[in-house]
Task: structure prediction
Amino acid sequence: MTSQAVKIQGVQHYFGSGNLRKQVLFDNQLQIEPGEIVIMTGPSGSGKTTLLTLIGTLRSVQEGSLEVLGQQLLGATDDDRIALRRRIGFIFQAHNLFESLTAFQNVKMALDLFDFSPEEVSSRIRELLTRLGLGNRIDFKPASLSGGQKQRVAVARGLVHRPKLILADEPTAALDEKSGREVVTMFQEFAEQEGAAILLVTHDNRILDVADRIVRMVDGRIKSNVLVQESRIICEFLKDVPVFSKLTPRTLTDMADKMFLEAFPPGATVIRQGDAGDKFYLIREGRVKVEVERDGNVRQVAELSKGSFFGEAALINHEPRNASVVAVSDLQVYTLGPEDFQRSLDASATLEEEVRKVLFERQ
Amino acid sequence: MKTPLAISNLLHHRMRTFAAAAGVTLSVVLIFMQLGFLGSVESTASLLFDALEFDLIMRSSNYLHLSAAGSFPQERMYQVASASTVQATQSLTLGLFPWHHPEQPRKRRIFSIGVDPLDSPFRLPEMQSKVSALVQPSSVLIDRKSRPEFGPQNGQRFGDADLGTRVEVAGKSVTIVGHFELGGGFASDGLMLLSVSHLEELAEGGLANQRSLGLIRLKPGADIVESAARLNRDLPHDVEVLTRDEAVQRERLRWTQGTSLGIIFQMGVAISFVVGIAIVYQVLSSDVAQQLREYATLKAMGYSTAALSRVVLSQAIMLAVLGFVPGLALAAALYQLTARVALIPIQMNTLRVIFVFVLAVSICSLSGWAAARKLGSADPVDLF
Result:
């Protein structure tokens, strides 16, 4: 038994067979703790839905280890998977309610799989629908409900059996802001009170604030996996850096999402003059000194501290490092790889301009 | 209690439910009618036997069926009468003659039974009492169940108004002196009784001293089967002796299996069955197809395909009941109408009701089973 709600290790997935076999997921790692709300984003075709259906046992795991609520899904039987589905709550983009059943009955279909007493069934459903603002719509059929109301019934159907893992695909896409807010608030309560892990695939940026973690997938790979709290700290830093002050919060967040945290002890060399440039650095904590070696003489040219950045020149001009950077104290830096740095530059003309200006001023 | 999804689906999609139930009703009515006709072939086949009083019956070995009975020499009757277990014998002569009613444009052939007016072989009280009227020369009794084309005064049914009417039979004038009710069934659509000597006269000597059926009554306590066996052994091979059950059974088989009538009606049943499956399958499968996303959602929630198949199957069984009840009522009404218009005995019986109900359930189960196979394509992965 593992304590994680979801534990993904080295999961690969392929569609098709023979010559048409195409890899859609590449060596993915992800863990979701109980009570954690994870939002997964990424362009369409990035594999996030495939990953979601693998976690939801709707597809068979082909390669790698995937544990959901303690059940290993690699090589699991159909019966194992059906049993596990009953412990998961699914919420789909479309409501998929039976037109022939009332709101109450549609939700009850989820409880029919268990042996609850009729009183328990009735009180759970009524309580949940009431909390979702449908108290006066309990015995209505979908035809008499608005789109938002139908979606909330579907949400109730996904939550009523108190699953320990909730998988939701664009659950708020069909909802107005207020209903969407109610639904995500309910997710938060569920995560907190029931210890349910919640994985949301969404492009709805109105609800990003509920996420404890945001996972971004691109081309079948988890590109970034950022704790939101950490991401906020990075943004604060980036915003305080004069060259980034004009950037939109979005560009800042994009940059923040892609950064990794690295630590160095005092005296460690962070970058060495003459090496190829492969990273951009932002100091989270501590100080560094910048040294340039010329004709055998090492000369300290600057000392940088919290909020300063370095390492950009080699990335922009595609040249070797023109100086060494050595940690003076315990050092924590955020780093950004060359492709992501370049992408951030491309995304924002302003950023590139600013950086070039800084470079120009330094010379 | 679990959510009654099957019933809810039927109640919610009313037009669809109505269409499917109507399909079942149609099949049920068609099947009832085919079986009804088949049943009336069987029961008319034995009508005459049922009306006659006998333990054993003797007939020509050339016998095909009642209206092609062949004949045997009258002396066989004497041989039978002398057998130790035989109490009494009577004989009938059967013939088919052209019938020409003065007010009808076309001639018809009438099935004719020649009897001894002074020794009625009939069990039915009405026939027994009226046969004696045939002592009058050139007299006949006409079956009220003869078709109207034979020319009753009121245009529908022979009755008292026809008494005294003179009709030309086999070119000779005869007088209707009475009427009775038996029914000739599918072999003949008109039936008359006359005296044996009158019939021989109409046949112009063709049947002189010839008999068609010999009716044998055994002494009390005599073993029927054993007596039949002994008579068959002792008599020449131009005749055969049968028990009542054998005679009835062979007559029925002759009609249901020896003619195309049986196969026609059985084919009718089979086709109605297939038509029923086609209609119900069409409706059920479109019901499943329309709710495929919902069923897929249930699968994602942890319902097995088998559990969902049971929903579709119970929907099908309910359709069977919904369609069967009006089908039974309609068929019963049609039976009455047919009996009145076509003058054939067609009746509902319990065994047939049970049999058709089983067929209706089979129609719906097969359709439901086929429609439920679509559930296999309800893949939750497609919901994303």
